[in-house]
Amino acid sequence: MAQIIFLGTAGSAAVASKNIRSSGGIILRIDDAFQFHLDPGPGALPKAHEYGINPHNTTAVLVSHNHINHCNDLNLVIEAMTHSGLERRGVILGSKSTLQPGENSHPFITRYHHNLVERVIPMEKNHKVALESVEIHALPVEHTDQTAIGFKLFCPGFVVSYPGDTSLTPQLTESLVGTDVLILNVPYPGKRAQGSNLDSDTAIKLINQIKPRLAVITHFGLEMLKADPMHEARLIQQATGVQTIAASDGLTISPTGYGNYHSPVKGF
Ligand SMILES: [Zn+2]
Question: Which fold has domain 2-258?
């Protein structure tokens, strides 16, 4: 059985700091074998506990880019995953900006925490990695963090994609083809996107081209919350014909019913 649990749905520092919505990332659980933690933002551990997730069972942490609401609690999650280093375990996958020193930046993972885990894998756009029965493709996203990536996860029975923060590009659209469950960060309603982010209008364009079985919008900014994410999700569903849900903190979905993908090993 697989589950996707939203630990938080805040899409801006303003929303998170006013505590209107939480952050903390997204959990993907596959049977009892894997537990992936995507984008562990602030509050990842308390939110995990609140929603019945044991952070020690985390097998991999996936970080899309180095903005604080996506990676702030990476080192804390590593502490929990390894019992503060008592067990050397787990894999960290992420953008170069979070895991490697850059010309003008230092990585978000500390050297100490780097040494607590089994493997640390900085990924570039379009790179592929296999973790047991899950194939992971780094999506070519376009964001203010130039090294930002998204994740397309080929799981047994379904494909789930999480581009993270990005604008809409033909390369991204192409890389998302074949997605069953599409999780989109949509901080803005209507046509009001600022910078390299999505709004409802670009989400419609993207979903129309991909036609996933299920679309979930999350990562809401203040304007989006004012417009009401449920209302925006309804508009997206009407425009695309694709079932669309607005995530709420603690939302759990079962992706298995949405997939038609049965070959996790071949076909890449
Ligand atoms: Zn960002």
Answer: Metallo-beta-lactamase; Chain A (3.60.15)
Contacts of 159 (CB under 8 A, 6+ apart): 152, 153, 178, 179, 180, 181, 259, 261
Ligand 1 centroid – CA 186 distance (Å)? 11
Question: What is the distance in A from the centroid of ligand 1 to the CA of 267?
Answer: 31
What ranges do the domains of the chain cover? 2-258
> Between 19 and 198, where is the model more confident?
198
Tell me the two tokens of residue 116: 């607590």
| pLDDT exceeds 50 at position 265 | no
pLDDT per position as a tens digit, 125-170? 999 999 989 999 999 999 999 999 999 999 999 999 999 999 999 9
Region of 115 (left: φ > 0; alpha: ψ -120 to 50; beta: rest) is alpha
pLDDT at position 73 is 97
Ligand 1 centre and the CA of 206: distance in Å? 19
Other CB atoms within 10 Å distance of the CB of residue 245 = 18
